[in-house]
């Protein structure tokens, strides 16, 4: 059963079509990774799923309900950005609770969820710090924490590790894989890092110029790439 479905989804900016009819089925609990060159439309697709960008035509459904015009806060989705986008004047605790406070969630419940996320991400000792007192990896964990407290069914990650140095990237990749198992959540993840894609994904979606070139497991894509472009991107010998 598919949890999230895209049917012939298109996006134009002015006269320029940047997403050209994307069809996709994502199952509950799946870890789906989008790869493709810069400018191919990965972020645009993610932002349309999140509701931060209008869909020009086509349908987005979640649990068989049409989501095209549903408010972002009512889609059961939380997005983690590359830039972290933490509030500099707020502590880690306040950053993680902010969206819930904004949504009117009771204080006791907010504290409970913040502590739960802090435990999962090992942020307990850092709750009273401000973002500038954190390392890059710690900031990224706070950004993930802000998503976790919302108890989304679906997490969207847009190149979450690309601002980290190589060593930290490997560490965070393992953390994200662990998180996926622990939360049993659906994750849709954009990266241009082939190793991240091959190690994290249940399913990889290879995009080029607004079109999906191939969808498959890492092994499928490696063993049987649809064309030279996919082969080149995945690194298989075809
Ligand atoms: P990716 O995330 O794969 O690098 P994007 O989704 O950011 O690609 O961009 C896809 C295409 O859409 C690019 O050509 C980009 O210039 C264009 N684009 C993205 N956002 C806008 C916008 N707000 N206005 C006009 N063009 C945009
Ligand atoms: Mg992008």
Automatic annotation (TrEMBL):
Q: How does it sit in the membrane?
A: Peripheral membrane protein
Which GO molecular function entries does the Swiss-Prot or TrEMBL record give? ABC-type maltose transporter activity; ATP binding; ATP hydrolysis activity
Q: Which GO terms describe its cellular component?
A: ATP-binding cassette (ABC) transporter complex, substrate-binding subunit-containing; maltose transport complex
Alphabetical UniProt keywords: ATP-binding, Cell inner membrane, Cell membrane, Membrane, Nucleotide-binding, Plasmid, Transport
Name its cellular compartments: Cell inner membrane
Q: What is its main location?
A: membrane
Q: Which family does the record claim for this protein?
A: Belongs to the ABC transporter superfamily.
What is the name listed in the Swiss-Prot or TrEMBL entry for this protein? Lactose transport ATP-binding protein LacK
Gene field: lacK
């Amino acid at each position: 059963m598919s949890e999230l479905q895209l049917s012939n989804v298109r996006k134009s900016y002015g006269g320029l079509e940047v997403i050209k009819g994307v069809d996709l089925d994502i199952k509950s609990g799946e870890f789906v990774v989008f790869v493709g060159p810069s400018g191919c439309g990965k972020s645009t697709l993610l932002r349309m799923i999140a509701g931060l960008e209008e869909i020009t035509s086509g349908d987005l459904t979640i649990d068989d309900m049409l989501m095209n015009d549903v408010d972002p806060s009512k889609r059961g989705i939380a997005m983690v950005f590359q830039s972290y986008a933490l509030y500099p004047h707020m502590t880690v605790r306040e950053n993680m609770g902010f969206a819930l406070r904004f949504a009117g969630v009771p204080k006791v419940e907010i504290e409970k969820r913040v502590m739960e996320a802090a435990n999962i991400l090992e942020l307990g000792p850092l709750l009273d710090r401000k973002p500038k007192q954190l390392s890059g990896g710690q900031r990224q964990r706070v950004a993930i924490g802000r998503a976790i407290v919302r108890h989304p069914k679906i997490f969207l990650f847009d190149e979450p590790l690309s601002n980290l140095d190589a060593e930290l990237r490997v560490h965070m990749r393992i953390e994200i894989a662990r998180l996926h198992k622990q939360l049993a959540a659906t994750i849709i993840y954009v990266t241009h890092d082939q190793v991240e894609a091959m190690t994290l994904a249940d399913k990889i979606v290879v995009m080029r110029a607004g079109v999906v070139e191939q969808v498959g497991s890492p092994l499928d894509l490696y063993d049987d790439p649809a064309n030279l472009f996919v082969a080149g991107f995945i690194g298989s010998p075809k």
